[in-house]
Write a structure and sequence with these properties.
Radius of gyration: 21 Å
Strand order of the largest sheet: 1-4-7-6
Shape: globular
Number of helices: 9
Largest sheet: 4 strands, antiparallel
Length: 405
């Protein structure tokens, strides 16, 4: 896979999405994709003939791949249906509602799919994906630099949980086995909860241009008979890219709406998303969306009324970030044993984080103290969305007189 050199010059206003399907240095990846699609169709999958997999920029092989329409696709038209038997899942998964809390089973199944003498074309495709491109799987030096940047306050939180806690502690997994580590990352970055679905995992994310969605909800109903199916959520014209939403998917991932924003997308998927973006700073009790309007003007939509205390905390962190950049941005990352991919993505996220803080601080929104009178569910009290799960993954925030957590 390429080291995503094209990312370095892309700004927050343009946004950046690293595709679920990355680019490769040579053309072998095109062969893997061709073999995968043929294998899927030969084994009962339906993939709409009006959809092709190609580079975002057809004249630049360093750009990521995506799904594109070669013919008009009508709203409601099926994009793809993948049979149950072609989906990687836990061995104890029966097709009934529910999933493994720690995803140990799907990780084990992914390891098995990439091992042995009878690897399927999907297994070969997964093996060819780049290693360690999401922050939870970076090297020690890059992780330490990211943690220095975040200062245990700024999101995303718990960068190292995916390996050290979930895989090693909860699953008893081997964090020193490169194939196992690769499988953990693939499940985190490409799965549809606890299902690793071929072709579906090639869809790119864009909340501002989403035009496909699940036909069936695999989280609450069995898809053992129907298969995993995607449909067009609106009319898609010739040449348009097919975009999914990884966190605002209609009628499926509602539990992500409250807390899973741009920082969490970066942690789990390894990219900074296009606008619109959602930012939740739990230590300061500030939550807002960044929306791109007319003439590319960026506006701040606060989902919870901001406070003077919260804004002061954000100013403090913005000043610290600027100091961090002055100290670290000119360093020789190769001498520091940091890869080009890690270095590029870290600073891309830095730019997005700095810009988000700046937009919020410069907003003329009225400041009130109401948010500090609420309990630790303050961030779901905005009147526009409702939490649907019991574990929101948000750290409790301190009240007046408390020490910061």
């Amino acid at each position: 896979m390429s080291l995503l050199r094209w990312l370095a010059a892309v700004s927050l206003l343009l946004g950046t999405v690293i595709a679920a399907s990355f680019t490769t240095v040579d053309d072998d990846h095109d062969v893997l994709i061709t073999n995968l699609l043929s294998w899927l169709r030969d084994n009962g999958a339906y993939i709409n003939d009006a959809v092709v997999v190609r580079h975002v920029n057809q004249n630049d092989a360093s750009t990521p791949r995506g799904l594109f329409a070669t013919k008009t696709i009508e709203e409601g038209e099926t994009i793809a249906t993948i049979p149950w038997n072609l989906i990687i899942k836990s061995k104890d998964k029966t097709g009934e509602p529910g999933w493994s809390e720690t995803d140990c089973g799907i990780i084990d199944a992914t390891i098995e799919a990439m091992s042995g003498d009878n690897i399927t074309p999907y297994g070969h495709y997964l093996l060819a994906q780049p290693r360690g491109y999401t922050p939870g799987f970076w090297g020690k030096e890059a992780t330490e630099l990211l943690e220095e940047m975040l200062n245990d306050r700024l999101p995303p939180n718990d960068v190292d949980d995916m390996l050290d806690y979930e895989w090693k502690k909860m699953c008893g997994g081997d964090v020193n086995n490169p194939l196992h580590v690769h499988a953990v990352m693939l499940v985190r970055a490409r799965s549809d909860w606890d299902l690793l679905v071929p072709f579906y995992d090639m869809t790119n994310h864009h909340n501002g241009k989403t035009n496909i969605q699940h036909k069936y909800n695999p989280y609450v109903e069995s898809i053992k008979e129907t298969g995993h199916s995607l449909i067009a959520s609106k009319r898609i014209e010739v040449g348009e890219e097919l975009y999914n939403s990884y966190n605002h998917c209609k009628n499926v991932c509602d539990q992500y709406l409250d807390h899973f924003g741009t920082p969490e997308m970066f942690l789990h998927f390894g990219f900074v998303e296009f606008l619109p973006q959602r930012w939740l700073f739990d230590f300061a009790r500030v939550k807002f969306d960044l929306v791109q309007g007319e003439e590319d003007k960026v506006s701040v939509n606060f989902l919870v009324p901001p406070s003077e205390r919260g804004m002061a905390m954000l100013r403090e962190e913005l000043d610290r970030l600027e100091s961090f950049a002055s100290k670290r941005r000119g360093m020789d990352y190769k001498e520091a044993n940091i890869t080009e991919t890690e270095w590029t993505l870290l600073w891309q996220y830095f730019d997005a984080l700095r810009d988000a803080l700046s937009f919020a601080i410069k907003s003329d929104e009225a400041l009130v103290d109401d948010v500090w009178k609420l309990d630790d569910d303050w961030w779901v009290r905005d009147g526009t969305i409702k939490a649907t799960d019991d574990e929101h993954w948000i750290r409790p925030t301190p009240r007046d007189g408390d020490e910061e957590l």
